[in-house]
Amino acid sequence: MAQIQKPTDRLKRFFGIDPDEKLDDSAYYNDGSYVESEPSAADFLRSLAPTYTGVLNYLRELFPFLGWIFHYNLTWLLGDVIAGVTVGFVVVPQGMAYAQLAGLRPEYGLYTSFVGFLLYWAFATSKDITIGAVAVMSTIVGNIIANVQNTHPQLEAEAIARSLAFISGIVLLFFGLARLGFIVEFIPLVAIGAFMTGSAISIGAGQVPALLGLQGVNNREATYLVIVNTLKALPTARLDAAVGLTALFGLYFIRWVCTFMAKRSPARQKTWFFISTLRMAFIVIVYILMSFLVNRGITDPKKQKFKILGVVPSGFQHVGAPRVDSEILSALLPEIPTTILVLLIEHIAISKSFGRVNNYIINPSQELVAIGFTNVFGPFLGGYPATGSFSRTAIKSKAGVRTPLAGIFTAVLVLLALYALTSVFYYIPSAALSGIIIHAVGDLITEPKELWKFWQTSPLEIIIFFAGVFVSIFTSIENGIYVTIGLSGAVLLFRMAKSPGKFLGRIDIQTTPRDTVRGNAHLTGKTVGDEEVHTTYVALDQSDLSNPELAIKSPHPGVFVYRFGEGLNYINSARHLDNLTVNIYKVTRRTEMNKFERLGDRPWNDPGPRRGQVINNEEIASRPTLRAVILDFSSVNYLDVTSAQALIDLRNQFNRYAAPDRVEWHFAGVANQWTKRALVASGFGADTIHSEVTHKGSTGPLIAVGEARGGGSSSFQAPEKASKEVDIEAVQVPSTSSRTADGRLVPVFGINRPFFHVDVATAVKAAVRNSDLGPSYED
Fold it and tell me: Which Gene3D superfamilies does this entry report, sorted A to Z (predicted)?
């Protein structure tokens, strides 16, 4: 009589728990042999549960300054003061210029930069990054303000910018606190390069009208239209052109002189660097003095010789909560994704780059907390969206910054400018600020040598790069971002879907010094010496660019080794398994050659020879029968339902092809416990017959064993429970390995999973042995 299954038993099986097994049982048989059990859903849920240590680590990560602030010293202080003050001389003119890109008054750029420098250090995992007003983000803010005011003309530009920063900051802060920093990895380098290049060209082109004092050019249009309209408006150029062009020339000339002198005098390289860094402040001071001399006493803007910045209010004149209501939320909602994307791209890309240069690792999630908190708090002092600045970060790094605390000293300098220098800013020529912007964004354009590297690495991605740049120029910067990320994602999916799998063959190799091989066309074993020969596996078709003279052999008649190119998933499973089927059928035969006695019994897709066609039965008979398939799972981290079912269907198909024999399936390099669980649930990997049916003269399936940790076999107590006995035959341990004092060896994987192997070589050895002995273990 069949045993009635309890509902609780079904529930236990759903969670991967054996109803007849106690949860506290050890993973050992009575004889002390190690066996494996698959992880359950309960194990997964337990792994997600927070622990006391995990909570403490989370809180510690939120305030990384606690890890270094108590070690602060005078040497660090000196380096931070120098770097902070140096950046301060750059950020003041840049901040005011970038605010004009956003369509705001100059003081908003100073507010934004002040808050970034004041707050970032407490949450930073990068000592080099500087947060504040930047050219690209300011341009995006300006475009968003223009778009919103087209449909909501009653909303002020300042209110739009501050609300945009606040809402974006909340989203980024949530991403950071939830530790979702990995999302930045979905943005490839080529997309970042195209975005920065397209943005730099768009910003530069948009500043030329102000540089030349042209009238009637709308720099919010598509870049190509701005360029066309600029050329048309050239006859309207004013005296501003003389100011702007000479300022731009002066910036590049000072940088060239300093670079040249630094190469000629390496001992004074640091001095020339600081002189070069101060070039923006120097140009601004010179042109303020000139503007004061020619425009002194002229209050009517129409009578001024050239356009000047005008009144910059002293101190924080726009303190207050940002506006957040249904009207502004509905207006800004379509613009939030673009804003967040730009904030992410600029900040994370810059911080990662300088982290690699200066030998430290940033925490992307914590960086999201930093820029999120900055953008949440900044609008209360009048700030608009802020993120990392490439030019200022490079200056800060070269100036010898020691810790993130350097931002405090920059904030002090910005504060000083806000309260003591605003009256001087009145005379800054607008054309000079445009020259500063063009000079700053010029460094964002990807250099030709980088493009050549892209081409050599991945020619397809250079097409994506130029597509993003062209879209940015002919439509908008925002569209350029989406195009490059979308195309990069499409290429990634295409490569996954078309990832090439390879059949592997065996070669015996030795190692030898390179000079022994060079020029020696007839290298022999005697030339190499007594180096140990070992077996490895390479692509049979030599698509891995191995030497065409290599003698690559089949692993064994009827045994096939297949390596997945980029994992196995629902996108590429059909392609991989079709490749397996077609190529295996080409070189093998059915176990029963005369299985179909009548022509009508044959399946339509295997009709046999045409009437009157002569078939070479000897050639077919000489082919091996299919005995085993070995899958290299070293690139497979997860097995989904679609690919698991595809493996099951292929196993059934091969079993019908090899009937009455059954095909063995071996798996090498399975490193994920959930992948192993999926395979076992699909009927793979496990020894289903154990010692009840064995090969004649065999001690069971072949498995790998390794050196045990010290303590001897008495280090655990086997529970008293009934268990199945599985015989094993140990793989010989390499002579280079040492054993414990008692010489004890243990299985690498559980003895109840003999078809999971450490590597391909071990899997082939087991499959070949079973193939030579007779019936399959998976009967």
Answer: STAS domain (3.30.750.24)
Which residue has better confidence, 37 or 291?
Answer: 291
CA distances for 667 relative to 43, 634, 649, angstroms:
24, 9, 17
Give long-range contacts, CB 8 A cutoff, 24+ apart: 736-739: 737/706, 737/707, 738/707, 739/707
pTM value is 0.80
Helices 240-264, 279-295: crossing angle, 10 deg rounding:
150
What crossing angle do the helices spanning 74-101 and 135-151 adopt, rounded to 10°? 30
Digit-coded pLDDT (tens) for 575-631: 999 999 999 999 998 887 766 666 666 666 665 555 544 455 667 778 888 999 999
Distance CA 77, CA 83 (A): 10
Q: What's the burial of 151, exposed, middle or buried (CB within 10 Å: 0-12/13-18/19+)? A: exposed
| Sequence-distant (≥ 6) Cβ neighbours of residue 232 within 8 angstroms | none
Question: What is the identity of the amino acid at 563?
Answer: R
pLDDT digits (tens, 9 = 90+) for 437-467: 999 888 889 889 999 999 999 999 999 999 9
What is the three-class DSSP state of 672?
Answer: coil
Residue 309: exposed, middle, or buried by beta-carbon count in 10 A (0-12, 13-18, 19+)? buried
From the list 445, 441, 387, the residue with the least C-alpha distance to 126 is: 387
Taking a C-beta distance cutoff of 8 angstroms, is the pair 172, 340 a contact?
yes
Could you tell me the sign of the dihedral formed by the alpha carbons of 442, 393, 263, 278, in that order? positive
Q: In this structure, what DSSP letter does residue 310 have?
A: -
Query: Quick check: 292 and 427 in contact, CB under 8 A?
Result: yes
Element (H, E) at 559: strand 559-563
CB within 8 A of 458, min separation 6: which ones? 190
Per DSSP, 30 falls in state T
Burial of 282 (0-12, 13-18, 19+ CB in 10 A): middle
Kindly list the strands in the beta sheet with 502-509, ordered across the sheet, starting from the edge strand earlier in the chain: 534-539, 502-509, 559-563, 628-632, 664-668, 756-757
Query: Taking residues 716-739, what's their average pLDDT?
Result: 34
CA-CA-CA-CA torsion sign (674, 678, 684, 690):
positive
State the amino acid at position 153 in one-letter form.
P
Surface-to-core class of residue 732, CB atoms within 10 Å of its CB (0-12 exposed, 13-18 middle, 19+ buried): exposed
Q: In terms of DSSP bridges, do strands 131-132 and 387-388 run parallel, antiparallel, or are they unpaired?
A: antiparallel
Main-chain dihedrals φ then ψ at residue 194, nearest 5 degrees: -65, -40
Q: Please give the full DSSP string across 202-223, using - where no structure is assigned.
A: HHHHHHHHHHHT-SS--TTS-H
Cβ neighbourhood burial of 68 (10 Å; 0-12, 13-18, 19+): middle
* Whole-number Cα distances in Å, 581 to 84, 110, 305, 657: 65, 67, 81, 11
**What radius of gyration, in Å, describes the C-alpha atoms of the chain?**
35
Beta-bridge partners for 308 = 429
